[in-house]
Amino acid sequence: MGFTMGLNLVLLMAMVATNILSLYHLSKNVQSPRAPTPQPVPDHLLNQLRTIRSTINHLTRLQPPSPPSSASAAANPAPTIPSDLLLHSQLSPIASACHGYPDLLHRFMNYTPFSLCPHDPDLAEALILRGCHPLPRRRCFSRTPPKTTSASLPHNPFPPALPDSNVIWAKYSCKSFSCLNHYNPNLGFDTSHEYSKFTTYRSELDLPVSQLLQIAKSAGSVLRLGIDIGGGTGSFAATMKMQNVTVVTTTMNLGAPYNEAAALRGLVPLHVPLQQRLPVFDGVVDLVRCGHAVNRWIPETVLEFMLFDIDRVLRGGGYLWLDHFFGKGVSMEKVYKPLIGKLGYKKVKWATANKTDSSGLKNGEVYLTALLQKPVTK
């Protein structure tokens, strides 16, 4: 009863807020007699209205439905909302995007409490990639590999091989790291192949870690904490660990156990998508690297929000490293260069070169490697 009354009160406040915003916009139009035609609704008001409507829709979905008539119930049976989804919604917030995918959300929350969780990593990532993140918590026990080992876990972030027994392989076509390496050694699971990735100089697009550290030292800047966005199995974090620099890696398990591989190397994987706000406080990290996952496939507006979120977490004097960012040549000059320039960062390194693989040649793509330093004060 108390939950229903509280829910009704929230709905009433949301509708009152909608009306106030509408009256505010109407009053602005009335006070502007010179305008011959109605002015468009400002974007910030539209965004507020969309947020309120989304909240109303979300809360309405969670409100216990009134008992339907027998005839309508037979014709349109209402889906059963999992009890733990209703319970969680009373205890903790749910991402607003979740309400747009009720079938996926209901499947994720349709489990037996206090028992083993379903093995549904694909379902979880389907929700995450659609903006339903963080996911609702569940009251079930996570599954573990049947023959997991702990005593033999490597301390070296570049071990000769990663132990297969610490991964649940049921959802993957490959059932071992050697299988993944056989099909594509560039995926990051071949640690011997990855060892030289950030320590050698092959072209102007490369920035070896030794050179990065020297640049920071020459500028009187210290590198201690970093974030690697879209870092796969964590090879950059592994290389920085060898230099006593702590780097966490954002990564997703898209077709392979990237998170597990990073953890087996003694690194911290953050299971978050590219579009999510970085889960760290403002101005606390010294370095943010954007790996190969950050490229022209990201919509321009999403990329702009990402860059300014990176600016949020970087301290003054910190570095942003765009490592082999690629896009079409014409877009690099007309779109991406001005977009990056909005940050107002100092250009420490800026190198471009043609992308010579089949996709690059077909689409006229170029690579950009840029090291940019955030101003100490703004």
UniProtKB/TrEMBL annotation:
The keyword Glycoprotein applies. The keyword Transmembrane helix applies. Keywords: Glycoprotein, Membrane, Methyltransferase, Signal-anchor, Transferase, Transmembrane, Transmembrane helix. It is found in: Endomembrane system; Membrane. GO terms for molecular function: methyltransferase activity. GO terms for biological process: methylation. Belongs to the methyltransferase superfamily. This is S-adenosyl-L-methionine-dependent methyltransferase. It comes from Eucalyptus globulus (Tasmanian blue gum). The lineage of its organism: Eukaryota, Viridiplantae, Streptophyta, Embryophyta, Tracheophyta.
